[in-house]
Amino acid sequence: MTRFSAARRFLLLSSMSLALVAASGCKPKAGADGEGSGAQSGALVIGAYLSLTGSKADFGIKTQQGALLAIDEANAAGGVGGRPVKLVILDDQGTADEAGNAVTRLIDVENASAILGEVSSSLSLVGGRIAQRRGIPMVSPSSTNTQVTEIGNFVFRTCFIDPFQGEVMATFAKEKQGFTRIAVIKDVRNDYSIGLAKAFIETFTKNGGTIVAEESYNEGDTDFSAQLTKIKALEAQALFVPGYYTEVGNLAKNSRRLGLNIPLLGGDGWESPKLREIGGNDIVGSFYSNHFAPDNANEKSSAFIATYSKRWNEPPTALATLGYDATALIIDAMRRAKGEPTPAAIRDALEATKAFPAVTGAVTFDANRNPVKPAVVLKVTADGDKFVAEIQPAGAAPAAPAAPAAPAAPAAPAAPASGAAAAPAGSGSGAAK
Amino acid sequence: MIWTYRTAVSIALIAALFVINWALDAFVIEYVVRIILQCGINAILAVGLNLINGTTGQFSLGHAGFMAVGAYATAFAVIHLESGLGFSASNIPAPWMQGLLLSVGLLFGALFAGLAGLLVGAPSLRLRGDYLAIVTLGFAEIIRLIFTNTEALGGATGYSGGRPLGLPVYTNFFWVFLWAILLITLIGNFTFSSYGRALRAIREDEIATEALGINTTRMKVLASVISAAAVGVAGGLFAHLMGTIRPDDFKMDRSVAMIVMILIGGLGSVSGAIIGAIFVAVTLEAMRDIQQYRLLAYSLLLIGLMIARPQGLLGSRELRLPAFLRRKRGGAA
Fold first, then answer.
1. Domain B2-332 grouped into CATH 1.10.3470
2. Inter-chain CB proximity B244 and A125 less than 8 Å
């Protein structure tokens, strides 16, 4: 009988703690559920869940800075229909349990009408599923993995998806550089790298190019001579390396040492001052795609760079810019929402977004809620990365080849042109998480 | 007589769980329910880890690895059971079936985590102290890297069972606490059995225990397997609460969080482990209002607690609670 002591104690304790938390956590009465409460007056809440502590804190902090700027500007311009907009930011420490808690808290306690987050795709998957289940729209500023918006019709993003960058670089290599023989070397353990490589190979061969070799490496490798020696014998004109800056830098050094003097091509995982620190002169002359180019400024992006630099005393990074764009997009959708800006109305408005003038390029959503917007190609030079080309998305949206009625004509984002916002002081691997 | 008493208690417990589950669903916001569920999951983790770290005194830093094995095995089993039985997004299993599927999955989780405990424990439990901690930490990292590199299990992005909406969210109050009570009772009884006494003897003096004719390695491996299996069940419940399991969620931080639970509660004390588990789950969330100072305050709180009560909230250096229970049990018998 005393065997149950532990169980009884446990029950007592759990019921005590249950009573404690339940006291502050009862569901609001029907009718005032979530969206309803405070809908007539008071601030509209955008809830953000970001990694403000932990190993990826820099991503979250930069995104937060961009988002806060967007909120300030919106409130200075009169808020949404006279109501102020409030940003509630919760830290998720970069872990799934905290991300899940943060999103449910934003919905249940903070009454968020829309959710902003996360940077990491894997955390956007955790939060996005809760948002979808609860019927609250979520916009991820910078999760590039295709799975994120596949969750459902409440999940959007403001960055392009991984495969699109592969298409961009394939188009750039074939059309702008005239390459016909290219070798690919990818990080086999990394979804991002695999996704870019796959899209690159498909587009490049479809356009009549030849992939002479498909090699692989692992994160942390510093010696690539085996793969590069093989590639050298095949007379490739360029080498596509969709990876992160550390390995790319080392690979560049390796290739020059072996006498392989062809340009390297890559994606936004290259964006870091570390790239030139590691690669030195050997990486100069290579190209990579990114969300924007610092020297391709238009009016909108120059204004953003100026206000951001003034507010935070540092130039904006890729993530900060995307954080600003995502927040501004949510506010815009709140303004465009029909009737009261309820979560459902905001979702509908988000879906109907047409050529929203974001800093990183005009945003129009395709059928899969991925933005159809141009990417830029930058060239690595001895004194910073220089803008070379802007690549428009091909006819259909990258993730929705079977979307005939996608609201995005290829020419749609032409007017406001691609933005230019980041300064060279990019934060690590940028949005390529 | 005993049997009717036990049966009555069991039925009452199940009924109570069922009613609370319903009440939480109807009246309490999801955020709070989520934290309560995490309390239950943490309790299983802490009691499981306590068996090897507290009772047996073998310091393991690698239980996040066993949790990962349990999480992946459970999720994999549930996803494949569902597709095998013809359930899909349009044909969602009934609530009782969901619980059954989850429980079968959890058995798989326990089995595989237990096997991992055997594989890791058999060679490494011959080591002691710091060496054991480092070896278990190494094994946990190996387990995590295996999952990171297994494409079929989602790689670094995490395992969602190949479904847009992720792993089905079957973890609810009823199943978490049913499994928690089951495992805690089991481990509690084990701890206070002759086996448990042997484990405590190993903690106090391994050589003397060996001299008494107890196969200490066998006992330690047994404790490791049971501990890993329990932690695996917690991992499975965690998987079906999160909807996605990522290798990154089973880093050393997770092992450290488990150790904090049992240190806060009192090393070697079953009920202490439960209190520590609830403490860890609730404290950080309760401090949301102070934003970025949260982790700082949490760390200070832990330091303060360890200075004020180095033996943990419940446990004394003599581990009062087990002794108290043992005496009472002796009296009843």
1. yes
2. yes
Question: Which of A15-19, A32-36, B241-245, B327-331 has the largest mean confidence?
Answer: B241-245
Above 90 in pLDDT, residue A331?
yes
Give me the domains of chain A, ranges plus CATH numbers: 34-160+295-372 (3.40.50.2300), 163-290 (3.40.50.2300)
Average confidence (pLDDT) over A112-141? 93
User: Which ipTM was obtained for this model?
Assistant: 0.89
Per-residue pLDDT band for A2 (boundaries 50, 70, 90) equals very low
Q: Which residues contact A284 (CB under 8 A, 6 or more apart)?
A: A276, A380, A381, A382
Statement: residue A423 has pLDDT above 80: no
- Of all residues in chain A, the one with the smallest CA distance to B192 is A3
Query: Which residue do the tokens 């990491």 mark?
Result: A120
pLDDT in the model for residue B261: 92
Residue A323 in tokens: 């954080």
Least Cα distance to A252 among A234, A270, A233, A230 occurs for A270
CA of A147: which chain B residue's CA is closest? B164
CB contact, 8 Å: B158 with chain A? yes
- The Cβ of residue A339 has, within 10 Å, a number of other Cβ atoms equal to 6
Phi and psi dihedrals of A145, rounded to 5? -65, 135
Q: Determine which of A117-121, A231-235, A420-424, B138-142 has the lowest per-residue pLDDT on average.
A: A420-424
Who contacts A197 (Cβ-Cβ below 8 Å, separation ≥6)? A166, A184, A186, A214, A240, A242
Chain A residues with beta carbon closer than 8 angstroms to that of B282: 17, 21
Contact of B45 with chain A, judged by CB distance below 8 Å, is answered with no
Q: Count of residues for chain B?
A: 333
Contact list in A for residue B31 (CB cut-off 8 A) is 25, 101, 104-105, 107-109
